[in-house]
Amino acid sequence: MKSIRLKLKQNLVNYKLPTSFQLKETYPLPPYSTVIGMVHNTCNYIEYKPMKISVQGKYHSKVNDLATRYEFKNGMTFDASRHQIKVGEYGISRGVSNVELLSDVELVIHIVPEDENLIEEIFNAFKAPHEYISLGRREDLVVVDEVKIVEISEERIKDENLRIDRDYRAYVPVEIIDKKKVFVEGSVDTIQYKGTMYNLTKDYVSVNYGSAKSPKFFRKWNKIKVHYVSNIVASRRRAITVDEDRYMVFLA
Protein backbone atom coordinates (compact mmCIF):
# COMPACT_ATOMS: atom_id res chain seq x y z
CA MET A 1 0.00 0.00 0.00
CA LYS A 2 1.28 3.44 -0.90
CA SER A 3 1.26 6.55 1.26
CA ILE A 4 2.40 10.17 1.07
CA ARG A 5 4.76 11.03 3.91
CA LEU A 6 5.09 14.68 4.86
CA LYS A 7 7.72 16.18 7.11
CA LEU A 8 6.55 19.64 8.17
CA LYS A 9 7.72 22.47 10.40
CA GLN A 10 5.76 25.37 11.90
CA ASN A 11 6.87 28.31 13.99
CA LEU A 12 3.87 29.29 16.15
CA VAL A 13 0.59 27.43 15.70
CA ASN A 14 -2.80 26.78 17.29
CA TYR A 15 -4.78 23.59 16.63
CA LYS A 16 -7.88 24.86 18.39
CA LEU A 17 -9.79 22.75 20.88
CA PRO A 18 -13.46 23.12 19.89
CA THR A 19 -14.58 23.50 23.52
CA SER A 20 -12.20 26.36 24.41
CA PHE A 21 -13.44 29.95 24.19
CA GLN A 22 -11.96 32.52 26.59
CA LEU A 23 -8.51 30.98 26.17
CA LYS A 24 -8.25 29.36 22.76
CA GLU A 25 -6.43 26.21 23.82
CA THR A 26 -4.62 23.95 21.38
CA TYR A 27 -4.24 20.24 20.76
CA PRO A 28 -0.60 19.07 21.09
CA LEU A 29 -0.69 17.79 17.50
CA PRO A 30 -3.12 18.58 14.65
CA PRO A 31 -6.28 16.41 14.79
CA TYR A 32 -7.18 14.29 11.79
CA SER A 33 -9.85 16.69 10.52
CA THR A 34 -7.33 19.55 10.45
CA VAL A 35 -4.85 17.51 8.43
CA ILE A 36 -7.58 16.33 6.04
CA GLY A 37 -8.66 19.95 5.58
CA MET A 38 -5.09 20.93 4.70
CA VAL A 39 -4.90 18.14 2.10
CA HIS A 40 -8.22 19.11 0.51
CA ASN A 41 -7.30 22.80 0.37
CA THR A 42 -3.85 22.09 -1.09
CA CYS A 43 -5.35 19.80 -3.75
CA ASN A 44 -8.32 22.12 -4.48
CA TYR A 45 -10.81 19.34 -3.72
CA ILE A 46 -14.39 20.59 -3.52
CA GLU A 47 -15.84 17.27 -2.36
CA TYR A 48 -14.66 14.93 0.37
CA LYS A 49 -12.01 12.34 -0.52
CA PRO A 50 -11.90 9.54 2.10
CA MET A 51 -8.44 8.96 3.52
CA LYS A 52 -6.58 7.60 6.52
CA ILE A 53 -4.11 9.72 8.46
CA SER A 54 -1.22 9.10 10.86
CA VAL A 55 0.16 12.00 12.92
CA GLN A 56 3.30 12.18 15.07
CA GLY A 57 5.58 15.03 16.02
CA LYS A 58 6.82 17.35 18.73
CA TYR A 59 6.86 20.97 19.87
CA HIS A 60 9.30 22.94 21.99
CA SER A 61 7.01 24.88 24.34
CA LYS A 62 3.65 26.60 24.79
CA VAL A 63 3.15 30.36 24.93
CA ASN A 64 0.11 32.64 25.20
CA ASP A 65 -0.57 35.53 22.84
CA LEU A 66 -3.33 38.08 22.24
CA ALA A 67 -5.69 37.85 19.30
CA THR A 68 -8.60 39.88 17.96
CA ARG A 69 -11.96 38.34 18.76
CA TYR A 70 -15.17 38.90 16.80
CA GLU A 71 -18.60 38.03 18.16
CA PHE A 72 -22.05 38.32 16.63
CA LYS A 73 -25.50 36.95 17.17
CA ASN A 74 -27.52 35.78 14.22
CA GLY A 75 -30.06 38.43 13.25
CA MET A 76 -28.95 41.08 15.80
CA THR A 77 -29.15 44.54 14.26
CA PHE A 78 -26.40 47.11 14.75
CA ASP A 79 -26.36 48.94 18.10
CA ALA A 80 -23.70 51.64 18.41
CA SER A 81 -23.56 51.19 22.21
CA ARG A 82 -22.41 47.56 21.97
CA HIS A 83 -21.10 46.94 18.45
CA GLN A 84 -17.84 48.16 16.94
CA ILE A 85 -18.50 47.01 13.37
CA LYS A 86 -21.55 47.42 11.17
CA VAL A 87 -22.16 45.00 8.31
CA GLY A 88 -25.29 45.98 6.45
CA GLU A 89 -27.97 46.17 9.13
CA TYR A 90 -26.15 43.84 11.52
CA GLY A 91 -23.63 44.48 14.31
CA ILE A 92 -20.39 42.71 15.28
CA SER A 93 -18.51 43.13 18.56
CA ARG A 94 -14.71 43.27 18.45
CA GLY A 95 -12.52 42.57 21.45
CA VAL A 96 -9.37 40.84 22.71
CA SER A 97 -8.89 37.16 23.50
CA ASN A 98 -6.00 34.95 24.53
CA VAL A 99 -4.69 32.18 22.31
CA GLU A 100 -2.41 29.30 23.23
CA LEU A 101 0.40 28.65 20.75
CA LEU A 102 2.85 25.80 20.22
CA SER A 103 6.36 26.83 19.22
CA ASP A 104 8.85 25.09 16.91
CA VAL A 105 6.53 22.30 15.79
CA GLU A 106 7.85 19.34 13.80
CA LEU A 107 5.43 16.82 12.24
CA VAL A 108 5.61 13.50 10.41
CA ILE A 109 2.29 12.83 8.67
CA HIS A 110 1.27 9.83 6.57
CA ILE A 111 -1.68 10.19 4.18
CA VAL A 112 -3.36 7.13 2.67
CA PRO A 113 -6.27 8.06 0.35
CA GLU A 114 -8.95 5.42 -0.13
CA ASP A 115 -8.53 5.87 -3.89
CA GLU A 116 -4.89 5.01 -4.59
CA ASN A 117 -5.10 6.89 -7.90
CA LEU A 118 -4.98 10.12 -5.87
CA ILE A 119 -1.46 9.40 -4.58
CA GLU A 120 0.37 11.16 -7.41
CA GLU A 121 -2.12 14.03 -7.39
CA ILE A 122 -1.64 14.72 -3.68
CA PHE A 123 2.14 14.32 -4.00
CA ASN A 124 2.34 16.85 -6.83
CA ALA A 125 0.06 19.31 -4.99
CA PHE A 126 2.47 19.41 -2.03
CA LYS A 127 5.56 19.54 -4.26
CA ALA A 128 4.19 22.57 -6.16
CA PRO A 129 1.32 24.10 -4.11
CA HIS A 130 -0.99 26.64 -5.79
CA GLU A 131 -0.62 28.90 -2.71
CA TYR A 132 1.06 28.85 0.67
CA ILE A 133 0.14 25.85 2.83
CA SER A 134 -1.28 26.37 6.31
CA LEU A 135 -2.18 23.91 9.05
CA GLY A 136 -4.29 25.05 12.01
CA ARG A 137 -5.36 28.66 11.57
CA ARG A 138 -5.13 30.35 8.20
CA GLU A 139 -2.04 32.24 9.35
CA ASP A 140 -0.24 29.12 10.64
CA LEU A 141 2.14 28.62 7.74
CA VAL A 142 3.87 25.34 6.97
CA VAL A 143 7.45 24.71 5.87
CA VAL A 144 7.54 21.47 3.88
CA ASP A 145 10.84 19.69 4.54
CA GLU A 146 9.92 16.50 2.69
CA VAL A 147 7.21 15.05 0.47
CA LYS A 148 7.73 11.39 -0.37
CA ILE A 149 5.67 8.51 -1.70
CA VAL A 150 6.43 5.48 0.48
CA GLU A 151 5.29 1.89 0.66
CA ILE A 152 3.69 0.90 3.94
CA SER A 153 3.02 -2.62 5.13
CA GLU A 154 2.36 -4.69 8.23
CA GLU A 155 5.42 -6.43 9.66
CA ARG A 156 5.99 -8.75 12.57
CA ILE A 157 8.73 -7.19 14.66
CA LYS A 158 11.52 -9.59 15.60
CA ASP A 159 13.20 -7.28 18.09
CA GLU A 160 12.31 -4.35 20.34
CA ASN A 161 14.53 -1.78 18.64
CA LEU A 162 11.76 -0.24 16.56
CA ARG A 163 10.49 2.92 18.24
CA ILE A 164 9.48 6.44 17.35
CA ASP A 165 11.95 9.26 17.86
CA ARG A 166 12.50 9.75 21.59
CA ASP A 167 11.37 13.40 21.46
CA TYR A 168 8.30 12.62 19.35
CA ARG A 169 4.75 11.85 20.40
CA ALA A 170 1.92 10.36 18.37
CA TYR A 171 -1.81 9.88 18.21
CA VAL A 172 -2.26 6.11 18.57
CA PRO A 173 -5.81 4.73 18.06
CA VAL A 174 -6.91 2.81 21.16
CA GLU A 175 -7.26 -0.52 19.34
CA ILE A 176 -3.54 -0.52 18.46
CA ILE A 177 -2.58 -0.33 22.14
CA ASP A 178 -5.46 -2.59 23.24
CA LYS A 179 -4.21 -5.29 20.86
CA LYS A 180 -0.69 -4.76 22.29
CA LYS A 181 0.82 -4.03 18.90
CA VAL A 182 2.86 -1.32 20.60
CA PHE A 183 3.58 -0.48 24.22
CA VAL A 184 4.54 2.68 26.03
CA GLU A 185 8.00 2.31 27.53
CA GLY A 186 8.15 3.15 31.23
CA SER A 187 4.36 2.97 31.74
CA VAL A 188 2.72 1.01 34.56
CA ASP A 189 0.94 -2.15 33.38
CA THR A 190 -1.90 -1.72 35.87
CA ILE A 191 -2.88 1.64 34.35
CA GLN A 192 -5.48 0.95 31.66
CA TYR A 193 -5.13 4.20 29.70
CA LYS A 194 -1.65 5.33 28.74
CA GLY A 195 -0.91 9.00 28.04
CA THR A 196 -3.71 11.47 27.35
CA MET A 197 -6.99 10.33 25.79
CA TYR A 198 -8.59 12.40 23.04
CA ASN A 199 -11.71 11.99 20.92
CA LEU A 200 -10.41 13.50 17.69
CA THR A 201 -12.69 14.66 14.89
CA LYS A 202 -11.97 13.13 11.50
CA ASP A 203 -14.85 13.66 9.04
CA TYR A 204 -18.55 14.41 9.17
CA VAL A 205 -21.91 14.08 7.46
CA SER A 206 -24.56 16.80 7.29
CA VAL A 207 -27.71 15.73 9.13
CA ASN A 208 -31.02 17.60 8.78
CA TYR A 209 -32.59 18.04 12.23
CA GLY A 210 -35.32 20.24 10.81
CA SER A 211 -37.99 19.46 8.26
CA ALA A 212 -38.11 19.33 4.48
CA LYS A 213 -39.67 22.82 4.35
CA SER A 214 -37.47 24.29 7.08
CA PRO A 215 -34.18 22.37 7.02
CA LYS A 216 -31.59 22.77 9.79
CA PHE A 217 -28.36 21.02 8.89
CA PHE A 218 -25.73 20.19 11.50
CA ARG A 219 -22.44 18.38 11.22
CA LYS A 220 -22.38 14.91 12.76
CA TRP A 221 -18.70 14.17 13.37
CA ASN A 222 -16.98 10.83 13.17
CA LYS A 223 -14.61 10.82 16.15
CA ILE A 224 -11.59 8.61 16.74
CA LYS A 225 -10.52 7.72 20.27
CA VAL A 226 -6.72 7.91 20.57
CA HIS A 227 -3.89 7.88 23.08
CA TYR A 228 -1.48 10.81 22.87
CA VAL A 229 1.76 9.15 23.99
CA SER A 230 5.54 9.16 23.72
CA ASN A 231 8.19 6.43 24.16
CA ILE A 232 6.31 4.11 21.80
CA VAL A 233 8.01 0.77 21.16
CA ALA A 234 6.82 -1.97 18.80
CA SER A 235 5.88 -5.20 20.55
CA ARG A 236 7.92 -8.26 19.62
CA ARG A 237 6.32 -10.66 17.14
CA ARG A 238 3.27 -8.41 16.76
CA ALA A 239 2.27 -7.03 13.37
CA ILE A 240 2.65 -3.25 13.21
CA THR A 241 2.33 -0.91 10.23
CA VAL A 242 5.62 0.64 9.09
CA ASP A 243 6.80 2.45 6.00
CA GLU A 244 9.81 1.59 3.87
CA ASP A 245 12.09 3.80 6.02
CA ARG A 246 10.97 2.08 9.24
CA TYR A 247 8.71 4.88 10.47
CA MET A 248 5.85 3.45 12.50
CA VAL A 249 2.44 4.40 11.10
CA PHE A 250 -0.73 4.72 13.23
CA LEU A 251 -3.52 5.08 10.69
CA ALA A 252 -7.03 6.22 11.61
Question: What do these coordinates show?
Answer:
The chain is mainly β and 252 residues long. It has one domain (2-243): Alpha-Beta Plaits, CATH 3.30.70. 10% of the residues lie in helices and 46% in strands. It has three helices and 13 strands; from the N terminus they run E-E-H-E-E-E-E-H-E-E-H-E-E-E-E-E. The strands form two sheets. Strands 1, 2, 3, 4, 5, 6, 7, 8, 10, 11 and 13 form an eleven-stranded mixed β-sheet that branches. Strands 9-12 form a two-stranded antiparallel sheet. It is globular. The mean pLDDT is 92.
Present the secondary structure layout.
Layout: E1 2-13, E2 23-24, H1 32-43, E3 51-58, E4 61-71, E5 85-87, E6 90-113, H2 119-127, E7 143-156, E8 169-173, H3 174-178, E9 182-184, E10 196-208, E11 217-230, E12 232-234, E13 239-243
Parallel strand pairs: 2-6
Antiparallel strand pairs: 1-6, 1-7, 3-6, 3-8, 4-6, 5-6, 7-13, 8-11, 9-12, 10-11
Give the rounded overall mean pLDDT. 92
DSSP strand count: 13
Major β-sheet profile: 11 strands, mixed
Structural domain count: 1
Return residue spans where pLDDT drops below 50 for at least 5 consecutive residues. Answer: none
Run of helices and strands: EEHEEEEHEEHEEEEE
Named at the architecture level, the CATH assignment is 2-Layer Sandwich
CATH topology: Alpha-Beta Plaits
What is the C-level CATH assignment?
Alpha Beta
With helices defined by DSSP (H or I, 4 residues minimum), what is the helix count?
3
Strand content: over 45%
Shape: globular
- Give the helix/strand class: mainly beta
Distance between the termini: 15 Å
Helix content: 10-25%
